Amino acid sequence: xxxxxxxxxxxxxxxxxxxxxxxxxxxxxxxxxxxxxxxxxxxxxxxxxxxxxxxxxxxxxxxxxxxxxxxxxxxxxxxxxxxxxxxxxxxxxxxxxxxxxxxxxxxxxxxxxxxxxxxxxxxxxxxxxxxxxxxxxxxxxxxxxxxxxxxxxxxxxxxxxxxxxxxxxxxxxxxxxxxxxxxxxxxxxxxxxxxxxxxxxxx
Amino acid sequence: xxxxxxxxxxxxxxxxxxxxxxxxxxxxxxxxxxxxxxxxxxxxxxxxxxxxxxxxxxxxxxxxxxxxxxxxxxxxxxxxxxxxxxxxxxxxxxxxxxxxxxxxxxxxxxxxxxxxxxxxxxxxxxxxxxxxxxxxxxxxxxxxxxxxxxxxxxxxxxxxxxxxxxxxxxxxxxxxxxxxxxxxxxxxxxxxxxxxxxxxxxxxxxxxxxxxxxxxxxxxxxxxxxxxxxxxxxxxxxxxxxxxxxxxxxxxxxxxxxxxxxxxxxxxxxxxxxxxxxxxxxxxxxxxxxxxxxxxxxxxxxxxxxxxxxxxxxxxxxxxxxxxxxxxxxxxxxxxxxxxxxxxxxxxxxxxxxxxxxxxxxxxxxxxxxxxxxxxxxxxxxxxxxxxxxxxxxxxxxxxxxxxxxxxxxxxxxxxxxxxxxxxxxxxxxxxxxxxxxxxxxxxxxxxxxxxxxxxxxxxxxxxxxxxxxxxxxxxxxxxxxxxxxxxxxxxxxxxxxxxxxxxxxxxxxxxxxxxxxxxxxxxxxxxxxxxxxxxxxxxxxxxxxxxxxxxxxxxxxxxxxxxxxxxxxxxxxxxxxxxxxxxxxxxxxxxxxxxxxxxxxxxxxxxxxxxxxxxxxxxxxxxxxxxxxxxxxxxxxxxxxxxxxxxxxxxxxxxxxxxxx
Lengths: 203, 662
Description:
The complex is a heterodimer. By secondary structure, chain A is mostly helical. Helix content of chain A is 68%, strand content 2%. Chain A has five helices and two strands, in the order ββααααα. In chain A, helix 2 runs antiparallel to helix 5, helix 3 (93-120) runs antiparallel to helix 4 and helix 4 runs antiparallel to helix 5. Chain B has a three-stranded antiparallel β-sheet, with no helix packed on it. The longest helix of chain B is centred in the first third of the chain and has 36 residues, at 96-131. In chain B, helix 14 (379-401) runs antiparallel to helix 16 (414-444) and helix 16 (414-444) runs antiparallel to helix 17 (450-476).
């Protein structure tokens, strides 16, 4: 006896529901690709540093005075967008708008402090391979933060306009993933440039 | 996991939000009314706007294929000019500088603008059809990846036509490629062009991955995927992770050249070998990315003409993945002569030799398929079967150079040129020509001329071997690659003449092939749905397929959906007649990653000019960077930013927004 396979009709979600939807896979792919980019940047740092005559880093003890608080500021912005995302899930629009706004302000402060950090350096991008790597890695990170800020700004506007509901909010959730990624990758950059010299790398 | 069941249909939407987000699809058969309705929903409007705005994967796939073939012709003409120059010793047709630009541009064109995009083209066209799906996961991203490919190709070729094409070889080693030694715009065109093109490859890869995981017909579990799917999927996972390496390398080089950074500059403590590492960390997995999908074409096409299933489906599928995994650990075999420590050479040599194992799995599976089948000798079969011979020759020379001492002798000689052409033509160009014969009826509704097809096969096959087989010897006799000429005393004149004659035979073969394509498009024999009596889903829909591919979503019960009766492997049959009718708008079905259980009804985006505008904005942006003209760069950036806001603006039609608040 021959049997015909036929998909069983069951109630299926239509379109993206909550944080599930086809767009999530796209965002994860973007993040994987961006993470690879930073992986290659950090590989370049360690490879160049390990094969160069010491001392290679230009500062044996990079100042943490600005960088450490700045790291905390960026992490707090992640908390803020998480708070906003949770508020979206609970249909608390005012809280969500506030969360987006706080995340945006903290991210902007991070960029401004990073500018001061660059200004305080005694060397320019062309000084040595270390200097080039430092400026371009932190620079590419800031570029990602700026894109992330644009994402936050749009999420702020769209939340303000009341576009998102607890079920239809995939755009918000995906945007928040990107922001978390930008924050997480900073931890790798920060550890590489600010912590490893204290452990003796390149000094 | 799943929310409480609700049975309401979309018709009752509005009163209860939780209900309106779920629907039970109706099961039905294809009727003329349904097809007409779907046609209205899915078809692209005629006219210029529709042409620029279409997101139909079939249209995009054909554009990819046509553009890539144009690049193949351009790259081929470049090769012929070089062969004329090399036909006899001490010729002066080309200056050394012209020759440098020609061989570099030839490499860049063939590797980046032909070999990868042609496979993206076939995969774009075929994937949703093979999957029993209506489109790729991200149709707009699909359009974007084509437009960026086109724009990046124009960008790079603008350099060539301005006399500033790449001229330090396709792998563009520093320090030659530094400003001090190559001060024109040549390398800047190449560097920025590669960063630009990388975006296309990356978004395309992301699209293939999500399509693989979500867009298959119910029942098409992971063990029922055609091998071309395994090939393109594996290549896409790799591309997503490796393209950033080459984009970064070229970006850093551009900074070194234009902004005096010290990444690869020895005086500033930079590391020239970093270039080679970043380039080949990308470059070696990449060469598998541009052959695995083509090997998949052979694995899927050959069985059709051998009238039996592929021998060893599971080993071939796993070998595809294994090749790529090993491929991540072999990049240093391009750097054996750079003075790295012996231990690392030994490791990378071993890994490179090991790759022979999964490669042999595919080869033996193809041989066994022919051996155990009843081959029907068509032009497509000949192209597919010749792949085996060419791959074995190219594989053996690769195996030889995987050994460090042999590599030290052979590197930078014509032996390597012979090796790389055997692998790249053998397992990219020949399978692609076979695939063109094989799938042409699906693309156009007409069959390519068989007689002309055989002529073109024998001309390309003989021409190719006459051109490249002697190059092994040319290399062993000591002719270095990438030199514009050679002295009479070396005695290399005759053998080079043989290669030149072969290259022209090869070119005639390609000419016949393209004549066949153009003629058969309008004058070929009408094909019908399944002219080869093939077994996969694309042959169950009309030729060419309607814009929506399948009026009802098929349900899959085996790996050979259209051969189930003959094979009689089980009692279960795929259902191609009756299935989900998704017609409440531009709808497609998402299924689960492993078992392909129905999971979600998707609302697909319609035609839009947004991807085209983004690619155009990026072209402006990269042109600004090239000229270091910041106003132009800023204009490009603003276009891109505005376009992205429009792209991501949450749309009611895509159900990205909730119903308006009361």
